[in-house]
Description:
Layout: H1 27-31, E1 38-41, H2 47-57, E2 63-64, E3 67-70, E4 76-79, E5 81-87, H3 93-97, H4 100-115, E6 130-136, E7 141-146, E8 155-163, E9 165-179, E10 186-201, E11 206-210, E12 226-230, E13 237-243
Antiparallel strand pairs: 1-11, 2-5, 3-4, 5-6, 6-13, 7-12, 8-11, 8-13, 9-10, 9-12
Amino acid sequence: MTEQWRGKGEFLDAPMLYIPSERLTNIEQRLGPYGPGVFHIPEALTPQAADELLAEAAALKWRDAGEDYYNIRGVHVIQNHEVYALKLLQGDAAFVDALPKMKQLALETEAFIQSLGTHFASLSTWVADEMSYHQYYDAEKGLTPHKDNKRFPGVVVVITIDGSSDFEIVSREPKSYKIDPVTGNEIVDEWTWFSTYRVPVSPGSMAIMRAPGLFAEAPGEDWRPEHAVMNVANAHRTAFLLRANSRPNEQSGGFVYENWPVE
């Protein structure tokens, strides 16, 4: 177990991210409680960095995370993607050090999110706990609407490395339920659909998504956006995800980290 994945925090190569302050206009409105819950920064990642990340990732052994299931809220979720995930505050840091480009992107992204403390005070102490690659392989449905786990606080950062898709924020509520004949659990049978906020993402895009604790929430409030990855061009998109974790010592059901737990 280690918290030393950052090392000295020195970047040996050119910066991977380029985000001038003027590109942050309206970030409070977009991520605030009455905004869509996502802030999009096109071309945040340099083309050279994207090429270097893809070259480094070419030798990775991906895990197929494809699944079709009903989650704890009774929502039908379809995910069509492969994953390579590493724990940062726990586990074997050698796995992280073996991917210097991915590590550099994590360091730069964490520093950038902390700099957003001028917009949201909670982000000044935001600390990344896991980084992962997700490779979507279905042209229509990369990942259908769902909410991320409450254990991921502040924001969730998604950077598109290759390919393109629609990142969708949906507003809907259950209209009716039924009983799943297999599990006996109550599941959503029909939805009342209000709106879809669609963000086309392409190589270099950074999507910052609202997560619990970004701002003060009243008891019982849940401002997590329900989101999806749809319309994957040419059935291919590779994305980098960086998340914090309010319960870093617990394993999340169904999610595998290559470097944790250490056998």
